[in-house]
Design goal:
The complex is a heterodimer. Chain A has ten helices and nine strands. By secondary structure, chain A is α/β, with parallel strands linked by helices. The chains are: A alpha/beta, B mainly beta. The complex binds zinc ion (ZN).
Chain lengths: 304, 153
């Protein structure tokens, strides 16, 4: 893998993805072998919006490789609040560290920042844009549970604003995957993602309800429908309810269906799914560390 | 020069942009950042009958030749336009527009959550697609009403 930055999954080939997942598997099998690999390496965490899970997993990953992290603290207390541009911020912090992780509410923020810095920059979420490191851990989880070839996957929920969905959909075009997108009409995939999938010749179907496709699925990837996407509470309740699953819903699914969720769930997956063999979301969250270790290991170069 | 073109007065030196789709002349002026306040001498023909387009617009600008950036954006709203460079009442160069692969700094991204709309030291950048343009930062695709997104408009 030879990239300076990781901005979107569109830049990743099938080989690149395989390289990361294989390295993650190596790390998973023998974490001790990687413990001092990046001693002295310093990673800068620039989180312009909160994300406990992503931030902590990067922090853990860097420390498990023997390196350390520096953190800009909360946006409220930083110079950003005083109006410094993002371009200036990344140029300054670049001078302190060996790599940068950026989470920012604006789409395109990672791409722009990448134009200003020479140290590797990893996009940890740019608005409704991309979230490539999440996708790599999703792919790792899918590979472990269902395999990445001859895959039928359902991706359900907020497909319009869900950056993890956009990144995953792009990445899956590298594999023999049939993608079914299930969402309310108002939260369908954005035009730009559909454009790319079409250009890639991906096998894509869109649906408004899960029922018809559920029996075919190997993986069901559930995302949250957020209250703030709807002008009125009742409309939200009516729609969100249709995209919640429980153990009963899944009785119509294949026995080995893998259920995933990229974020802390609220009520889109009922607690009774946890006790079924379908539940893979906790394992998925755990995979964040080895996969981010693999990425950092590959992108931060050899300090062995 | 055809009869129709004579409806608009000849210019001494400058640029004649012909075969603009009917009704787009004012958008062409917007692209050229001409609003009259700069004192340029400008002639406009709107909805002039045309064999090729049915109705076309013509814009003649005295004393001004176009930059490549301007020509690039013109091609997005007036793909069939011809550019005539006039010196001493003679057309010294005449060419059709070519669609560029990218345009920079001239369109504004309609996505208010796009980093290019923030106060950052970057120009907007758009990739030109066969049927529209696409922001290189947030990837938003614009197909209709491209002139509405011209920065100076
Ligand atoms: Zn944009």
């Amino acid at each position: 893998m030879r990239h300076d930055h990781l901005i979107t999954t569109k830049q990743l080939s099938r080989t690149d993805i395989g390289t990361v997942l294989d390295r993650a598997a190596e790390i998973d099998a023998d974490p001790a072998a990687f413990a001092d690999r990046h001693a002295g390496t310093l990673l800068g965490l620039l989180f312009f919006e909160p994300s406990t899970r992503t931030k902590m997993s990067f922090e853990t990953a860097m420390k498990r490789l023997g390196g350390d992290v520096v953190d800009m603290g909360s946006v409220e207390s930083s110079s950003v609040k005083k109006g410094e541009s993002l371009a200036d911020t990344v140029r300054v912090i670049e001078g302190y560290v060996d790599g940068l992780v950026l989470r920012h509410p604006r789409q395109g923020s990672a791409k722009m920042s990448g134009e200003y810095v020479d140290v590797p920059l990893l996009n940890a979420g740019d608005g409704a844009g991309h979230h490539p490191t999440q996708t790599l851990l999703d792919l790792y989880t899918i590979r472990e549970n269902a395999g990445l070839d001859d895959l039928t996957i359902g991706i359900m929920g907020d497909l319009k604003y869900g950056r993890t969905v956009h990144s995953l959909a792009h990445a899956l075009t590298n594999f023999d995957a049939r993608q079914h997108f299930i969402s309310p009409e108002s939260l369908k995939l954005p035009r730009s993602v559909r454009y790319d999938l079409h250009e890639e010749g991906a096998s894509v179907r869109e649906h408004t309800d899960l029922e018809a496709v559920l029996p075919d699925l190997d993986v069901l990837y559930v995302t949250r429908i957020q209250r703030e996407r709807f002008p009125d509470e009742n409309e939200y309740r009516a729609i969100a309810g249709e995209y919640q699953i429980d153990a009963e819903t899944l009785s119509a699914a294949k026995e080995d269906l893998t259920v995933m969720h990229p974020l802390p769930r609220v009520d889109e997956i009922a607690a009774d799914v946890d006790d079924t063999d379908h539940a893979t979301y906790f394992e998925q969250a755990h995979n964040g560390v080895p996969v981010r270790m693999a990425l950092l290991d590959l992108l931060l170069g050899d300090s062995e | 020069m055809s009869d129709h073109e004579l409806r608009v007065s000849k210019i001494r030196s400058g640029t004649v942009i012909d075969h603009i789709p009917g009704g787009q002349a004012l958008n062409v002026l917007a692209i050229l950042d001409i609003d009259g306040s700069g004192g340029e001498e400008v002639s406009i023909g709107m909805n002039v009958p045309s064999d090729r387009l049915g109705r076309k617009d013509i814009v003649k600008v005295e004393g001004r030749e176009l930059s490549q950036d301007e020509v690039d954006v013109l091609s997005l709203i007036a793909p069939d336009a011809t550019i005539n460079i006039v010196r001493d009442y003679d057309v010294v160069d005449k060419h059709r527009l070519e669609r560029p692969s990218h345009v920079s700094g001239v369109l504004e991204c309609p996505n208010r959550n796009c980093i290019s709309t923030d106060d950052e030291p970057i120009d907007s950048k758009f990739e030109v697609l066969p049927d529209g343009v696409r922001c290189e930062y947030c990837e938003t695709i614009i197909r209709e009403d491209i002139p509405d997104h011209i920065r100076s408009a």
